[in-house]
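Query structure, 218 tokens:
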């Protein structure tokens, strides 16, 4: 009876609009992070943009949580809505943490693998936007949603490889420098790689959340 009641009652479509807005902030944050990884004079401005978009995402998160409390009918399970929103927010939170490390240690130049990781973070964000846009009609779009989740997983594996190669390159460069090397350059570099890798991990979390919702609803 409850299932029939839910089927005939109008659903709160505003959640899908909020998901779309949230995903859009991830793209903006990812592009700002990519600009930050170019180094040079644009670091401060790019970092400020990452912070700004993270704050915008926080506001959207607050709106979603408020809508969960106010809505009698939701498009799918409330806990799934909350988990998806949290995973979206975690992705841009991790971007902010990356920018914070750069600012804290006053890093001005970045390794090629760091820039490559930033580029695939943008790819993951754009795939997330596409996936979120398909959620309102997830039965029809189930196959494409699955394909997008697989692609994000592939990007995460690619990021893992870059992470390993980047750390190795830092180690070899530091070892080659011998007594004149700066251990802090290695330590900070590894920290930045770690944060970038975690950003991609958070996007995989989003993809997994969406896949779980699709499995439950379809």
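Result returned for the query:
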């Amino acid at each position: 009876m409850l299932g029939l009641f839910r089927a005939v009652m109008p659903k709160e479509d505003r959640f899908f609009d909020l998901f779309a807005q949230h995903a859009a902030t991830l793209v903006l944050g990812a592009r700002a992070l990519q600009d930050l990884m170019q180094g040079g004079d644009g670091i401060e401005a790019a970092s400020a943009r990452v912070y700004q978009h993270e704050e915008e995402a926080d506001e959207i998160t607050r709106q979603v949580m408020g809508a969960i409390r106010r809505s009698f009918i939701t498009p799918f399970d409330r806990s799934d809505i909350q988990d998806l929103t949290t995973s979206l927010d975690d992705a841009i939170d991790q971007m902010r943490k990356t920018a914070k490390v750069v600012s804290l240690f006053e890093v001005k130049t970045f390794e090629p693998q760091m820039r490559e990781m930033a580029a695939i973070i943008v790819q993951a964000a754009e795939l997330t936007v596409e996936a979120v846009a398909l959620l309102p009609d997830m039965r029809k779009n189930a196959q494409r949603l699955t394909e997008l989740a697989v692609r994000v997983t592939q990007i995460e594996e690619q990021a893992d490889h870059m992470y390993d190669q980047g750390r190795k390159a830092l180690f070899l460069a530091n070892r080659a420098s011998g007594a004149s090397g700066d251990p802090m350059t290695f330590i900070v570099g590894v920290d930045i790689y770690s944060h970038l890798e975690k950003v991609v991990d958070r996007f995989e979390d989003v993809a997994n959340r969406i896949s779980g919702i699709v499995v439950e609803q379809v």
